[in-house]
TrEMBL record:
Domain DUF7988: 6-139
Record Pfam families: DUF7988 (PF25950)
Name assigned to this protein: DUF7988 domain-containing protein
Length: 140
């Protein structure tokens, strides 16, 4: 893991714990009504998560998290990030933040769900709620 990746991860873990906890609470709110720990309804996961993140104010906070993580790397953003692509995207796994910086593309994933693929290609994947939030930071 490179120094910028460590610096960005550390900044998020130390300064933005409330945002990570907020993402966790939003994901719980989506998964709580499920009959099982899984669903095959990708749209319900993505749209539900986007809706709860918006309602809670977390979605609007994510560009600030991205800007702060970039600052921790010692780099600068060419433009102010917004809560929309290409900077912030809500996927079936959780929110993804992206920024192009001097050494490459900084990608921050907040994994709240995992995709479980069936060996039968005719069956849809399922989305399972993870226990907590997996924070993945990479420089690509």
């Amino acid at each position: 893991m490179s120094h910028p990746v460590r610096a960005a991860r550390r900044r998020i873990q130390q300064e933005h714990l409330s945002v990570v906890e907020g993402i966790d609470a939003c994901a719980d709110a989506i998964a709580d009504p499920w009959d099982t720990s899984r669903t095959t309804d990708r749209e319900a996961v993505v749209n539900g998560l986007r809706g709860t993140l918006t309602e809670s104010g977390i979605l609007e906070a994510l560009p600030g998290v991205l800007a702060d993580a970039v600052d921790a790397t010692g780099c600068e953003l060419p433009a102010r990030p917004v809560a929309e692509p290409p900077y912030v995207v809500v996927t079936s796994r959780g929110p993804v933040l992206r920024a192009t910086i001097e050494p490459g593309r900084l990608v921050i994933r907040f994994d709240a769900f995992e995709i479980v693929r069936d060996p039968d290609p005719g069956r849809p994947p399922t989305y399972r709620r993870l226990d907590g939030i997996g924070l993945e930071v990479s420089l690509e």
